[in-house]
Write a structure and sequence with these properties.
heterodimer; A: mainly alpha; MetI-like fold; globular; B: alpha+beta; 50% helix
Amino acid sequence: MKKFIIKRLLLAIMILFFVSFIIYALMRCLPTSFVEALANKKAQAGGSKTFAEWMAQLNAVYGLDKGLFDGYGSWISKAITGDFGESWKFTIPVTQKFADVIWYSFVLNVICFILEMGISIPLGILAARKQYSRTDYTITTIALMGISLPSFFFATVLKLIFCVKLGWFDLFGVVGKYHEQLNTPLEKILDMGWHYILPVVTLTIVSIGALMRYTRTNMLEVLNSDYIRTARAKGLSEKVVINKHAFRNTLIPIVTIVGGMLPGLFSGAMITETLFGIPGIGYTSYQAMVEGDIPFTMFYMLFLAILTLLGTLLSDILYAVVDPRVRVN
Amino acid sequence: MADKNIDLEKNNNPQENTGNMFENENELNEDQRVKILSPGMLVVKRFIRNRLAIVGTVILIVMILFSFIGGALSPYAENQSFYKTSDVAKDYAAAALNNEPQFYYANGVEFENTLVKFEIINAVSQNKTYLKGKDYFYTVTEAGEGFYLIARAEEAATVKLDQNGTAISSEYAQDISSELEEAFMGCITSGEDNLSFEGKDYSVVSMADNTYTLCVAEDVGVSTRKVISLLDKNEKLTFEFMRDFELALNDKKNEFEFDGATYTVEEGNSFDIINKNGEEYACVSDYSIQSTVSGGKISVDEMASIVDAITSRKTEYTNPDGVLCSITNKDTRYTITTDKKTRILDTHAKPSKTHWLGTDKDGMDNLTRLMYGGRISLFIGFVVVIIELLIGVILGGIAGYFGKWVDNLIMRIVDIVICIPAMPIYIILGSIMDTNQVDAQMRIFYLMFVLGILSWPGICRMVRGQILSLREQEFMIATEATGISVRRRIFKHLIPNVIPQLIVIATMDLGSIILTEATLSFLGLGVKFPYASWGNIINAVNDSYVMTHFWFEWIPAGFLILLTVLGFNFVGDGLRDAFDPKMKR
C-alpha cells in the first residue's frame, strides 16, 4: 500500500512538472504584442512604473529574456518557494491576494458540496431501486436538466426573479449595504449567509445531476449483482438488502469519486461567483485573466492543475483503501 | 405473391399461426424471422421503448430543423437591422430671457483699452453720464427707457472761467480757429450744449469749477435692454440701426429710414415686430430667440408666438406651420423642441407579427438571430466532437493495442492534458484575440480547435480501456493468425467494437461542448458579433435594463441551450441503456 501511494505521488509530481512546463510555454506563446500592449497600458496609468520597468519586472519573474528552458527553470525555482510575483491588477503579491479571497470560494463550495451529497445520493439510490418507474423518470429528468442547465442563464433567471421582481436579495456582492453597521458578529454572518443563498442554489442545482446519475448507475450495477440475489434468496427483508448489502457496496465508487471532488472545493466557481459578485478565487481570477494579469493567471492555472492532480491521486488512493478486493500491484 | 400475403396476414394473428408452425417446421417462417432481431435492431427497439430518449430525439430533430432550415425560411438575414420612423423630440430653437443691457458699438471704433469698455458698462448701470479716459471723454446719455447713447469726445479746448465769466486759463488741444473759439465762448455764455461749426458737430460740456470743455463728439455706441432677434441669423445688427430704431421709438414714430430702406414697427403685447420694406425683419422683445437647427430660420411671427407663450407661461405653442412645439424652461433659458419624424433603429421592439420575438439592441430580429445562433452552436459542437473523436480514437487505439511503454507514454500525455485547466486557457485566448482584434470568423475556428485539443482525453481513456480487454479475445487471435496488418486490426476489428460507447460519449460531449461554447460566448470571449450564438445573445443581460425589461431577448436563447443540451443528454442516456442491456433488471 505504502509503495503504491509513493509511486502515485512520484507520478503526480512528474505530471505536475510537465503541466507546469506546458503552462509556462503557453505563457511564452503569448504574442509579444499582447504582453507589450499590456505593459504599455499599465505604464500609461498615472503614478505607475514605466514601460521598461514593467518589462524588466516581467523578465525578472518569468525569464522572458532567457531561453524557454532556462526561463522555466528560473520561474519554477521561484514558484516552489511560493514566490509568484506581484499581481498586476491587484498590486499585491499573488499569494497574498489568493489568501484573501480563497475562503469565500471555499465556504461557498463546501455548502454546495454538503447539499449535493445530501440530495443526489439518496435520490440516485431511490431512482435505481425503482428503475423505469415514474419516480425514476422524474429523478433522471431533473438530474439531466441540472446537467444541461447553463449556469450563467440559471443564475440570471434567479437574479431576475428574486433580486429584481421580488427584491429579496441584492444583485451583487457578498455583504449588504449596511454590513458595517451591524452590531454582533452573528448578524454579520447571517447577512453574508443571506447573500450566499442564490449562488449556493445555482451551484447546487447545476452540480447535483452528475453525482445523482453516477449513484444511480452504480446502485443499479450493485442491485444486479449475484450477492444481492443471494441476499434476497436468503429471505432478508428488502430494507436490509438495500441498506446493508447494496448501499455499502455502492459506497465504494461513491467514496472514490467524492474523495476526488474534495480538492475541487478550493477551485472556485468562476461563472457563478462572477455573476453574483462573490469575491472568491473564481471571480478574482476571472478579472485577472480578462485583464491579462499574467502573474495571477499563471498562479491560478498552476493551482488548478495541482487541484486536479490531487483529486485523481486522492480518488486512486481511496479506491485502493476502501475496496479490499482491489489488488495493488 | 398471393400466398405470401396470406402468410403475412396469418403472422399478424399468432393464435391461428400456431398450427401453421408445426406444419412447416423446417422452413424458416416469417414470424420466426421477426423474432430474431439483428443486434442493431435490438438497440433501436430498446431505444424506442425509452420514453426520455424519444423526447430527446424529438427535441434534437426540432432544434436541428429550427437552426438549419429555420435560417433559410426566415425572411430576414442574420445581420439585418430594422428601422422605424419615430417622433423624436428634436431641439428646434432656443430662447433666453435678457436682463442685461446689450451694447452695440460702431464698426471700426477702437477703444484705448478694454478697461474703457468695462467703465462704460459700469456707467450705464450706475447712471453716470460722463467718464474720462486717457485721450477721450465718454458721455453716456439716457435717450429713452433703458436706452443709452454712448458718445466719444475728443477734447478740442478747455476753458476755465472765474466768477465773472472771464477766462482765466484756456488750453487748446489742437489748433482751432479764432472763429470757433468765439463760438465756443458764445455757447458758454448762452449755456448751449451743442455747437455746429463748419459742418462739424461739437459739444460743450460743463464741469465743476466753472470749467468748460469743447469736444468733438462722435456717437460710438448704444446700450439697450431690448433684444432684437433677426429673421436671418447671418445678418448682424449694427449700432446705427439700433440707434435709429430706438430714436424712432422714442419719438413715438412707427416708421424710420435706415440705409435706404423703410422700417416699420408693429407693436404687440410683449413684443414688437420690425418690418423692412414691408417684409418681416426682426422681432423685438425681452428674449433672444435663435434657431438651433443649422440653416434654420424662425419666422418673425413664430418668434412672436414663442415670446407670447413664454410670457403667458404656456409650455406649448403651435407654430405657423401648424406643428406643435413644446417649451421647456431652465432658469432663464427656454428650449423649444418639436417632434420630428426620424428614421431610427428599431431596437428592443416588443414581440409582434413581423418580429415574433421582437428585436435586439441592434434592431435585429431575435428569432432569426436564434436560428443562426443555433446553426453556429451546433456546428461548433459537431466539429469539436469530430476533432476529439479523431485524436481520442487514434491515440486510445494505439495505446490499447500496443500496451507497454506506448500505452504508458500516451496515458501520461492524457494525464497531463487532463490537468491543463481548460477554462482559464479559453478565457486568456479570448482576451488575446480581443487585443489583437482577430476576425470574428477566425475566432470561431480557433475556438473549435482549442476546444477539440483540450477535450479528447476522456475518449482516449475509454477507447484504450475497451481495447485492452478486447485485445485478449479470440477474434483478435484469429486476425493475427490470418496475418491482417496492424492498422487494419486496430481500426477494422477493434475500433468498431467500441463504436457503441463512442456514440454515447460523443452525444453527451456534444451537449457539454455546446454549454462550454455558450458560456464563453456569454462572457464575450467566444463567438462574437456579427455572428450570433445562443451564448452571445444572452450576453445582452450584461445591460441590466435589458435583463429586467426585455425578457424576450434572452430567455428564449437560454431555453434553447437548455433544451438542446437536454436533448443530447436524453439521447445519450437512452443510447447507453439501449447498447448495454446489462443495466436492465
